[in-house]
Structures are given as structure tokens and as C-alpha cells.
Write a structure and sequence with these properties.
Layout (H helix, E strand, L loop, with lengths): L2 E14 L3 E8 L4 E6 L17 E8 L5 E11 L1 H5 L2 H17 L6 H16 L4 H15 L20 E3 L4 E3 L13 H12 L2 H6 L2 H19 L14
Parallel strand pairs: 3-5
Antiparallel strand pairs: 1-2, 1-4, 2-3, 4-5, 6-7
Helix pairs in contact: 2-3, 2-4, 3-4, 4-5, 4-7, 5-7
């Protein structure tokens, strides 16, 4: 059918002409969608504010040849304003949206959509440290995309763990026999934190030390950027975990 409805997260927008925008969205059922929102830059626009980055909306779209057209938009989650007022939240949300954009060039699953919505909601509410929300999102979305890191058994030989080295190129935690020279060493606390971030065990995450939080963030960023094959530019704007 030429017209369809879906729930979407707005990932990014670009100006088009004098009053329009091209909106890139991650949808619940139709993967990544790029559509033209006509007239949304005019002050009289009825739904321009609903199509800003980090907003969640129920949209009606008309199927176009190269770009779809947004016909209606109703707000589901107005997270953008709360996120934009805090630097840490904003940069974390930007990295999450950029990652979702990179990982879903062809198609997506409802689980990836729901994971991003949940992450943006947590950032807007300030439930946990922004960098921890991002780190948990990155580990989970990589797993949903088929790149689940090994965080206990050796990623290379399968030897039972826990082990003390992390190598993004090999798939996560590795044993001493498989770790190349110069591989980052992982403390027991950092290993526990990585597993808690992947499992969503927020009592462990929130209680982690600064050192373990900073170490896990660096390892997760390296892992995500290695498997997306292109740098996630927003990560360069993130401040070190405090």
C-alpha cells in the first residue's frame, strides 16, 4: 500500500529547500526510513517539533520512489528536550542514534527499535549515568546485530573463563594463550561490570568504581567501532566517565 503507519525514533534530520527537512528514522516494523517532512521548518508547522532528533512518534507515511513523505506525526515519547539540556545525555544519545543509523542500513528488528527507545527514555529521566546507559546500549545492540561479545569464555579458543584480556578484533575476552602482545588487561571488577552492562544488572553498574567504569567504556567503544567498520564520530565528543 502507498500509505503506511509505524512507530519511529528520529535519528537525524537535514534541511531541504526553504521549509522542508529530510528525516532519518528507525522504525519498529519497516527498518530505517528516510522521508521528507514538508513545511516543518515553518513556525506554523503542526508537527515539526515531533520530528526532532531523539523524539519517538507514531507517523503516517506515503511510500515514495526514493524518499517517503511524512503525512502525520503524533508524539509518543518527547525525550529530546530533556536530553538536549544536559551535555552528557546529549552526546550519549547522539552516539546511540549514530550507532543505530550505522547498524541498520538494510533492515532492523523490533528489538533494536525497543532497545533504542528504552535507552533514550533512561537518558531523559536520568535513571543512570549517561555513559553507562550508552555502554549498555552498545553491548546490547551489537549482540542483537550478531556481534555478541564473549565476556567469560575465551572468544578465540573457547576456554572457560573468566580471563584477563580483551581484544576487540577477536571478539571480546580472551585467555592468556590467545591474547596478542600488548592486549588490554581486564580487572575482575571491569569484567563483572561488562557482564552487568550486557545483562542490564543496574545495581552492579551503578555501584561500580570510577576506574572500572572508565575501563569498560574504553573497551566497549573500541569493540563497537571495530565491528561497525567505521568510526562512530559522536564518541569523540564524550567526556570520560566521572
Amino acid at each position: 500500500m502507498p500509505t503506511y503507519r509505524d512507530e519511529v525514533v528520529v535519528l537525524r534530520t537535514h534541511k531541504l529547500g526553504e521549509a522542508d527537512r529530510i528525516v532519518t528514522m528507525l522504525s519498529r516494523r519497516h527498518g530505517k526510513v528516510r522521508a521528507v517532512a514538508k513545511g516543518v521548518r515553518r513556525t506554523s508547522s503542526k508537527f515539526g517539533a515531533r520530528l526532532e532528533p531523539f523524539m519517538v512518534a507514531d507517523v503516517q507515511l506515503y511510500k515514495g520512489r526514493s524518499l517517503d513523505i511524512v503525512q502525520q506525526a503524533e508524539s509518543i515519547g518527547a525525550y529530546g528536550a530533556d536530553i538536549a539540556t544536559d551535555y552528557d545525555r546529549y552526546t550519549a544519545a547522539s552516539a546511540m542514534s549514530e550507532t543505530a543509523d550505522r547498524l541498520n542500513e538494510a533492515e532492523t528488528t523490533p528489538q533494536q527499535y525497543l532497545l533504542l527507545v528504552g535507552g533514550l527514555r533512561a537518558l531523559a529521566r536520568g535513571d543512570h549515568a549517561a555513559r553507562s546507559v550508552l555502554d549498555s546500549y552498545l553491548l546490547r545492540v551489537m549482540s542483537l546485530s550478531g556481534w555478541a561479545p564473549s565476556l567469560r569464555e575465551c572468544a578465540r579458543c573457547g576456554a572457560p573463563g573468566p580471563h584477563d584480556w580483551f581484544v576487540a578484533q577477536l571478539g571480546g575476552i580472551v585467555c592468556g594463550a590467545c591474547a596478542p602482545a600488548g592486549s588490554p588487561r581486564v580487572s575482575p571488577e571491569t569484567g563483572d561490570l561488562l557482564r552487568a552492562l550486557l545483562a542490564g544488572e543496574w545495581d552492579v553498574v551503578d555501584a561500580a568504581s570510577h576506574g572500572a567504569t572508565a575501563a569498560s567504556s574504553g573497551l566497549i567503544a573500541a569493540y563497537a567501532q571495530w565491528h561497525t567498520e567505521r568510526g562512530i564520530r559522536s564518541l569523540s565528543h564524550l567526556e570520560a566517565p566521572r
